[in-house]
């Protein structure tokens, strides 16, 4: 028998696991972190974190109701502002105490691990933030071309 747990229950288990193991891999869903993390295709490798900095990709509890894996865009004292790379608006807010983990690696279906804070990825994410006004069109093209290919390829490799 296969049982699918609600996302918050799964993530609560991941957070509990991080109390005893150094790293936990979590599959991601949705399109909010495109183009850097592909939901329903990629996973992220999470670690406990002692600090939160602008540019970090974190797992955080927001709105008292759900977890997200999004990028930190501002830290002001105990307040953290987040936004998914694939979002055009809709920032979220949480407290530092609501940050459950930091994503260090994105893992493709083939098992390839890519460090999220390599110099190339840091430059790319900063550039992506700067071109926020034109991301709508870039994401539209990406979703209709490259993303369809990656999702198709991912499903083929699992089937």
Silhouette: globular
| N-end to C-end Cα span | 20 Å
Number of helical elements: 4
Q: What would you report as the Rg, rounded to the nearest angstrom?
A: 16 Å
Proportion of strand residues: 25-35%
Considering DSSP H and I runs of 4 or more, what fraction of the residues is helical?
Answer: 25-40%
Number of beta strands:
8
Reading the helices and strands in chain order gives HEEEEEEEEHHH
Question: Helix- and strand-based class?
Answer: alpha+beta
Largest sheet, in brief, is: 8 strands, antiparallel
Give start-end ranges of low-pLDDT stretches: none
- Average the pLDDT over all residues and give the rounded result: 88
Describe the fold and architecture.
- The protein has helices spanning 7-17, 119-130, 135-144, 146-158; strands at 24-27, 43-47, 57-62, 66-76, 79-83, 92-95, 99-107, 113-115.
- Strands 1, 2, 3, 4, 5, 6, 7 and 8 form an 8-stranded antiparallel β-sheet that branches.
- With 159 residues, the protein is α+β, with helices and mostly antiparallel strands.
- The chain contains 4 helices and 8 strands; from the N terminus they run H-E-E-E-E-E-E-E-E-H-H-H.
- 29% of the residues lie in helices and 30% in strands.
Short description:
With 159 residues, the chain is an alpha+beta fold. 29% of the residues lie in helices and 30% in strands.
Architecture blueprint of SSEs:
Elements: H1 7-17, E1 24-27, E2 43-47, E3 57-62, E4 66-76, E5 79-83, E6 92-95, E7 99-107, E8 113-115, H2 119-130, H3 135-144, H4 146-158
Antiparallel strand pairs: 1-2, 2-7, 3-4, 3-7, 4-5, 5-6, 7-8
């Amino acid at each position: 028998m296969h049982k699918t747990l609600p996302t918050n229950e799964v993530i609560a288990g991941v957070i509990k696991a991080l109390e005893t193991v150094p790293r936990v891999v979590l599959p991601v869903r949705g399109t909010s972190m495109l183009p850097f993390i592909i939901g329903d295709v990629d996973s992220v490798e999470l670690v406990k974190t002692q600090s939160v900095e602008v540019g970090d990709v974190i797992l955080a509890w927001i709105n008292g109701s759900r977890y997200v894996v999004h990028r930190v865009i501002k830290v002001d004292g105990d307040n953290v502002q987040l936004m998914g790379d694939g979002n055009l608006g809709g920032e979220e807010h949480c407290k530092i105490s609501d940050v459950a983990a930091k994503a260090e690696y994105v893992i493709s279906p083939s098992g390839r691990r890519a460090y999220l804070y390599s110099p190339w990825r840091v430059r790319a994410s900063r550039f992506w933030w700067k071109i926020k006004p034109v991301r709508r069109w870039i994401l539209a093209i990406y979703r209709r071309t490259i993303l369809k290919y990656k999702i198709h390829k991912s499903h083929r490799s699992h089937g």
